[in-house]
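note to self — DONT lose this again. spent like an hour looking for the file last time. sequence + predicted structure for the chain T wanted, 465 res
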Amino acid sequence: MTTNHESEKRGATPGARVPLGAAFVLALAVLASSCASYDTRTRQAFRDFQRGHFGASFAAYADEDEIGSGFLSGAESGLVAFTSGDWAGAQAALHRAAAATEDIEGRALAGTERLAEGLASLALNDTTQAYEGEGFERVYVHCLLAQTYLALGQLDGVWVEVQRANALLEAEEKLYEKSYAAGGLGHFISAVAYEIFGEPDQAYVDYVRMHEKGVGMQLAGHALVRLATRLGRDEDIGRWTELYGEDVPRPDGAANVVVIAGIGTGPFKVGGNLAVPTHDGVLAFSVPIFRKRPQTVTGLRLEALEVATSVRTDVLERVADVAEENLQDRLLFTATKSVVRGVLKREMTKQLEDEYGVGGRVVGDVFSLLTERADLRSWRTLPDSWQACRLFVPPGVHTLELEAIGGKRGHLGTFELAPGETMVVFARTIGPDLYAHPVGGRLIEPLPLGVSAGEAATDALPTQP
């Protein structure tokens, strides 16, 4: 009489262990494949954001359990709140995002070796790990935090966040041994804050860095000519003038309006998958790829009606380009992990085949295919580009309008600007729609219905000396 144990050893009959083992592995595969993707879980929240339903979008993104990532929950809800002009709400949410990535940020600032250790960690697939953001996404968290501090007139906080953003960007560049066309947003925010605070020499340094990085060139160039003249840097005036033209005449005691804008909607991730059949089983590989969205609006135009003067925004940095380049640099780590996981799963398939025959081979191949998925999570509410402009006007009463080129036009209101005062307008376009929130000045004419000036719209920023 042949025992079940003997038949299992010879592989003649599967016995009770076959359905149990196969079912266990298959259950894992089904479980892995049934997990809703980030896109699916957040589809309604993103649609609400696109339609301007910011309250509903914020509530959905703020639900960390549903979003499945502390970083993305804080980053997405923070940017939604920022777009709606809720500076305090945005700040709180963005700090949650920063706290969720405190460990990897610490590794980045400690050196490239520590950062690489974190990137090289293995998992069943990348979606099973806590999402800590792409390197450029972590930089933008601090750039947005800097803007919330600027909106609230808390200039010391601006520099803390900008310095953090610059340090993280430099860590990414050092890790991948290259220079990104990024940093323009952080340096510009810092420069504006320094000028408001009455430290033009420090602002000058930020504008020089923008010039060196090739970001926001026209905006930085005009500022360099202006500040070199003001600071008496005779050795620099000629160089900047040759590159960017003569300093533009300004009225005595000129006030200025600065627009900082997110234009359009940023890129999203899709999966790049490859399955290679071998005699030992299927090798499945998967990596994420950023895909750009078509954009309706190309930039903004700010106009002061009383003086019939307008200026168009200059690109500080293109988020879509930075995202694509940063991810391509990280793909070496991502692809290496995918290959290693593929080899390990192939070994598992061989063991299943040795133990259970053809059925084990099939289950192993299915498991490998279903569990090797690219991590398609990303910060989806980011803009396609960051842009800015600056308009100098005589002190006094001005009616300001902002036009989304290719989209809608918004009446910001009529404001009285004091000599040397800086008004900052935080703006965002989503499709053809325009959302803008002026901070500073004394509001004289109420804004029309449907246009919000934000919580801090009439809180004056410090006046430049």
